[in-house]
Amino acid sequence: MVIKNSTYNKVSVVMFLLISGLTMFRAAEALSMNYYIMRCPMVELIVKDTVNRALQSDPTLAAGLIRMHFHDCFLQGCDASVLLDSTKGNTAEKDSPANLSLRGYEVIDDIKEQLEDQCPGVVSCADIVAMAARDAVFFAGGPVYDIPKGRKDGRRSKIEDTRNLPPPTFNSSELIRMFGQHGFTTQDMVALSGAHTLGVARCASFKNRLANFDSTHNVDPDIDTQFANTLIRTCKAGDNAEQPFDRSRNTFDNNYFIGLQNKAGVLSSDQTLFSSPQTRGIVNNYAMNEAMFFLDFQQAMVKMSLLDVKEGSKGEVRQNCRKIN
Ligand code: HEM
Ligand SMILES: *[C@@H]1O[C@H](CO)[C@@H](O)[C@H](O)[C@H]1NC(C)=O
Ligand SMILES: *[C@@H]1O[C@H](CO)[C@@H](O)[C@H](O)[C@H]1NC(C)=O
């Protein structure tokens, strides 16, 4: 169709410029791999270097940083809600019993301080958490991957939101359902659970499996007898005693899945992945093929890092990761 009316043409040119201008504005607000390349070119270097130094002095922090990212993204999206301190009128996520010993807050603060020096008000705490988790995976021996940046920080962090974290007593169907609600496939869920290749659980998180388990069993029948004795010995030191998830708690590898095949999963939610026919095949694949686990894990982590992200004016860039501006 040819439009002859020149006034109409002018109007449509203006309209076109307006719409493409808006699109460009939106594109500038959207997440991208190169989000900080002009705004704060040192960001990747500063995060990597700070995470590297922190892990050199305490390798167990890799687990802390990865878990922090998971808890952040599952509640209110990846918006650094997990970092906010409680205030007079508000108990934050981090003070829930379900914070389950989150660690690594000082590493995030350290990175944020350096970035505020370099490029004040530019890099969000949510992006810092996501990048720190990514670098922790790498320095612990896991896959290298990149994530889009440009997340904004949220303004809400409430203790009651932690109800939406999966409890360690969940069975495989319940895990599939909860992760499915966030858009994850069963395979994504099993791969993400593989983060338990790093770190520890405290006795409080699994002692229900060791005594008065159910009406017919004293000890959970899904635990190898010898491993049950190991867990019982760990728990002699109390609720806060730590049990590594696998044989190599600071190394990102597929030993976690091999452990599940040997009925040496620490949490019910770990062992259920092997007990249940819905997920056993995936566990067996990852136990046999570490490269496959790494590939699926990195894809699922990128997906997790994009959960309900806040872009543009939906959030802010906090000056201090522990409080809203
Ligand atoms: C599938 C459902 C999941 C459940 C039920 C679960 C539950 C738990 C529990 C109970 C602990 C031990 C806390 C304690 O006793 O102090 C733990 C630790 C941990 N979780 Fe998960 N988790 C799940 C998925 C994930 C995901 C998706 C990630 C990350 C991608 C993750 C990363 C970690 C890490 C790294 C630790 C060790 C933390 C440390 O050593 O400081 N978990 N998880
Ligand atoms: C976790 O929550 C407990 C209260 O249940 C609190 O005493 C503790 O300081 C919290 N841990 C962190 C790291 O915020
Ligand atoms: C998982 O738990 C739910 C809720 O307790 C239960 O209805 C379901 O039967 C369980 N599924 C399996 C496979 O045990």
TrEMBL record:
Residues reported in the UniProt entry to bind Ca(2+) 2: T197, D246, D253
Cofactor binding remark: Binds 2 calcium ions per subunit. Binds 1 heme b (iron(II)-protoporphyrin IX) group per subunit.
Annotated compartments: Secreted
Pfam families named among the record's database cross-references: peroxidase
SS bond list: C40-C119, C73-C78, C125-C321, C203-C235
Domain Plant heme peroxidase family profile: from-to ranges: 30-325
An MF annotation (GO) of this entry: metal ion binding
Reaction equations catalysed: 2 a phenolic donor + H2O2 = 2 a phenolic radical donor + 2 H2O
UniProt keyword list: Calcium, Disulfide bond, Glycoprotein, Heme, Hydrogen peroxide, Iron, Metal-binding, Oxidoreductase, Peroxidase, Secreted
Sequence positions that bind substrate: P166
Family note: Belongs to the peroxidase family. Ascorbate peroxidase subfamily. Belongs to the peroxidase family. Classical plant (class III) peroxidase subfamily.
Protein name per UniProt: Peroxidase
The organism of origin for this protein: Daucus carota subsp. sativus
